[in-house]
Design brief:
The chain has 267 residues and is α+β, with helices and mostly antiparallel strands. The protein is 43% helix and 13% strand. α3 runs antiparallel to α5. The chain is globular, with a radius of gyration of 19 Å.
């Protein structure tokens, strides 16, 4: 749940490496003080997104899709800065996450036993660092949040133009297919015009939708993670981007021995 994750972040923060893309915590504070004194020009939307995207990619979160908060008209509403529409981004990852995570675990093996939600912890640490590096006020909504803080991130990802929500409740990326993980929505205190929304083509309309029988079998059959994996494997899109066997097994089982083995193999 979010509370244990937040506690783990506070523990890890004291021993982790320098903040990616932002230097050390002390350097970040100095930079902010200088920013306040010199009042620099507000960065362009393109520059901010480009810097944020590069920072996220360094940690394995290689999919960053910008959008305007005004595009989202459903409930719950997205928080905004003032009455104007704000720049927001959906953060996700392909299989590119796994080698970055394993490399971090190799450098700091204590992370493996620090939390039951290692991927969520890594996402929080990495996305927060990337957002801080922009030096723009922001709010972050987490895909792993539960209860009142839950975010309909699959529907938001579709509105933003990142991925289509399939009949089997999979988010389908035009390149990576179902082999992505949605992690966060970041909203920046940067106004953005209500531009034309990107068109998201429906990849399921002309598909034989083999995922649906697999989805039904997973819901009605005996419990087992491989039956849920079969839904993703049934999708014809992005098969060349299928996660590695280790990444698949860890995501579905949370077996830390898989992380120990994968981190050791990263040497």
């Amino acid at each position: 749940s979010p509370a244990p994750i937040a506690k783990t972040i506070s523990v890890i923060a004291g021993v982790s490496e320098m903040i990616r893309c932002g230097g050390s915590a002390a350097a970040t504070r100095v930079d902010r003080a200088a920013t306040a004194r010199h009042t620099p020009t507000m960065p362009s939307t393109e520059d901010l997104v480009d810097r944020f995207r590069r920072c996220c990619a360094d940690a394995g979160f290689d999919l960053v899709q910008p959008f305007a908060t005004s595009w989202w008209t459903e409930e719950p509403t997205l928080p905004a800065f003032g009455d104007r529409g704000s720049l927001a981004v959906v953060v996700a990852n392909s299989g590119a996450l796994w080698p970055k995570l394993c490399d971090a675990l190799r450098r700091e093996p204590s992370r493996i036993d620090a939390s039951e939600h290692i991927v969520d912890v890594w996402a929080v640490e990495s996305v927060e660092a990337a957002a801080r590096a922009t030096a723009i006020d922001h709010r972050i909504l987490w895909a792993h949040a539960l209860g009142a803080e839950a975010v309909p991130i699959q529907r938001i990802a579709q509105v933003a133009g990142l991925a289509w929500l399939s009949p089997a409740n999979l988010s389908i990326h035009p390149r990576f297919g179902p082999w992505i993980g949605l992690r966060a929505v970041v909203i920046f205190d940067l106004p953005i015009p209500d531009t034309v929304r990107p068109r998201v083509d429906d990849p399921c309309g002309h598909c034989d939708q083999a995922c649906l029988p697999a989805f039904t079998a997973a819901r009605e059959g005996p419990a087992g993670w491989r039956s849920w994996l079969a839904i993703r494997d049934a999708c014809p899109l992005g098969r060349e981007h299928r996660y590695s066997e280790d990444q698949i097994a860890y995501h579905y089982t949370k077996d830390r021995d898989i992380l120990r083995s994968a981190a050791g193999a990263a040497d």
